[in-house]
């Protein structure tokens, strides 16, 4: 039965639409950090929404699980198949057309396999901005960004991917196609169905296309790299920056000294922008689409006041585009640099903005007490409460022994997050990595509602099983 279904799927997508040789499918089976190595019977690469729909319909009839996959850059195992091999990976990279762009309406409609950087480029060619920006933008696909509700460095001003989405086209778990590719800013005709699928990680349906918001292209940008006495000062500066710049504040990133040092050590081109070292830094950017705005003067005025108040102790404003790029290379280089420092236990958390400093102090003290010598690398978009609280192994420690304590340190960090009414996943999703853990931090009624939505749309549970919604939630429904 399974072989017959796979043969029919191959016929639907044609000779260029599937892979089954081990060397060809191996990249689709491995999570980007190597945390998961699954197995699949077939990698299917459809070229159209109609092909996706037919494949899903065949799988639904046979009860064959489907694992949707974009660029496979996720960090929670959401796009990786499980180990039993009884599934297909449905990779959307061939669906990479820009269906339309409407600069007057500030919208672009793209298929799920379009690379994020290509959307940014095409928008810029039409004098528009697509503001979603993150480290993997050169390889991640917009379908994956939508499925995980990706955040990025400009969330402060433009919001998460959810806020950038006007409409979706989705293949439902029974193979029907929902065309919700609307360009309306206002539509109060019932439930906002698109929001069910944004952030659902392919567990409710497969996003095949999206209509996205565009914005005026910035005409002027000013960027500063500043040193601060402590994390309390970081949040004070953020409050000052919001008040002084309003909607012009595009990014506000926390950077620790240890992160800067790792980037300088391992990433070519990263240099310390300041003459002497400090423990805490912030990368600040303001921008405007107005040809008459002077964001440079605005940023200079903000920092002058901060220096006088002692909130900022040192800093520099980029004098050129190259210097701005050098500042941002530090931010991206921290992520790369950690890879060369041994094992790293990751946390992508969010707390209320007012609790960021408290979280950083409490969590740092807690993990250091548990394991002296551990190296917390806390960075990220702290202006929206999102901190990447990564824990690098003690220097000289055994990597595997350290990584074996992942759950132990998750319990410590996430317990502190829960005590501050925060979230254990700010922008990376749930996937396999946090699926079971979610049952400890979501209220029972929330878990029940999620399971009911999944049950209603995907009663055969073929859409990305084992991700986001734990099996225990379905079992609870069966006992009713």
Short note summarizing the structure:
It comes from Aliidongia dinghuensis. With 480 residues, the protein is an alpha+beta fold. The chain has helices at 2-13, 22-29, 49-62, 116-125, 142-148, 155-158, 194-197, 231-245, 257-266, 295-309, 321-338, 356-370, 399-403, 406-419, 435-441, 444-457, 471-478; strands at 18-19, 42-44, 66-69, 88-91, 98-102, 107-111, 128-129, 165-171, 177-180, 206-213, 215-216, 220-228, 249-256, 280-288, 314-317, 344-345, 348-350, 375-379, 386-392.
Provide structural commentary.
Helices cover 38% and strands 19% of the residues. With 480 residues, the chain is α+β, with helices and mostly antiparallel strands. The chain has five domains: 2-91, Uridine Diphospho-n-acetylenolpyruvylglucosamine Reductase, domain 2 (2-Layer Sandwich); 98-216, Uridine Diphospho-n-acetylenolpyruvylglucosamine Reductase, domain 3, CATH 3.30.465; 220-339, 2-Layer Sandwich (Alpha-Beta Plaits), CATH 3.30.70; 342-419, Alpha-Beta Plaits, CATH 3.30.70; 443-478, no CATH class. A hairpin with a 4-residue loop joins β5 and β6. The two termini are 33 Å apart. The relative contact order is 0.11. The mean pLDDT is 95.
Under the CATH scheme, the architecture of the largest domain is 2-Layer Sandwich
Beta-strand segment tally? 19
- The CATH topology name of the largest domain reads Alpha-Beta Plaits
β-strand percent reads: 15-25%
């Amino acid at each position: 039965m399974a072989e017959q279904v796979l043969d029919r799927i191959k016929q639907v997508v044609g000779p260029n639409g599937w892979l089954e040789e081990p060397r060809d499918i191996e990249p689709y089976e491995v999570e980007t950090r190597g945390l998961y190595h699954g197995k699949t019977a077939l990698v299917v690469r459809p070229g159209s929404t109609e092909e996706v729909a037919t494949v899903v319909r065949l799988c639904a009839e046979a009860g064959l699980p489907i694992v949707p996959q974009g660029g496979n850059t996720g960090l929670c195992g959401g796009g990786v198949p499980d180990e039993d091999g009884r599934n297909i990976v449905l990779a959307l990279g061939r669906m990479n057309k820009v269906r339309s762009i409407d600069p007057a309406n500030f919208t672009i409609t793209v298929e799920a396999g379009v690379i994020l950087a290509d959307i940014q480029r095409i928008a810029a060619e039409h004098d528009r901005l697509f503001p979603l920006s993150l480290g993997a933008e050169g390889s991640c696909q917009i379908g994956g960004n939508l499925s995980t509700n990706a955040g990025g460095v400009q969330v402060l001003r433009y919001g998460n991917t959810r806020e950038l989405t006007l409409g979706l086209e989705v293949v439902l778990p029974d193979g029907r196609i929902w065309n919700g590719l609307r360009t309306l800013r206002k539509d109060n005709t019932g439930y906002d169905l698109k929001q069910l699928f944004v952030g659902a990680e392919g567990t409710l349906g497969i996003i095949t296309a999206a209509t996205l918001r565009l914005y005026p292209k910035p005409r002027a940008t000013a960027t500063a790299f500043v040193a601060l006495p402590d994390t309390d000062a970081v949040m004070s500066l953020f409050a000052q920056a919001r008040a002084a710049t309003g909607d012009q504040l595009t990014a506000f990133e926390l950077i620790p000294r240890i992160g800067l040092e790792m980037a300088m050590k391992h990433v070519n081109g990263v240099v310390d922008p300041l003459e002497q070292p400090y423990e805490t830094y912030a990368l600040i950017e303001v921008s405007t689409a107005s040809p008459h705005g002077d964001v440079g003067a605005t940023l200079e005025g903000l920092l002058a006041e901060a220096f006088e108040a002692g909130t900022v102790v040192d800093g520099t404003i980029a004098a050129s585009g190259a210097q701005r790029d050098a500042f941002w290379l530090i931010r991206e280089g921290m992520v790369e640099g950690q890879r060369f420092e041994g094992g790293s236990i990751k946390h992508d958390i969010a707390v209320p903005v007012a609790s960021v400093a408290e979280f950083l102090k409490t969590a740092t003290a807690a993990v250091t007490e548990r394991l002296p010598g551990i190296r917390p690398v806390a960075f990220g978009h702290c202006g929206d409460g999102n901190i990447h609280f990564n824990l690098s192994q003690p220097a000289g420690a055994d990597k595997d022994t350290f990584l074996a304590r992942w759950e132990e340190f998750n319990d410590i960090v996430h317990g502190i997050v829960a005590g501050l009414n925060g979230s254990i996943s700010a922008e990376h999703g749930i996937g396999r990595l946090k699926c079971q853990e979610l049952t400890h931090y979501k209220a029972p009624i929330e878990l029940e509602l999620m399971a009911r939505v999944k049950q209603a749309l995907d009663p055969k549970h073929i859409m990305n099983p084992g991700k986001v919604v734990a099996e225990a939630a379905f079992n609870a429904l069966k006992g009713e």
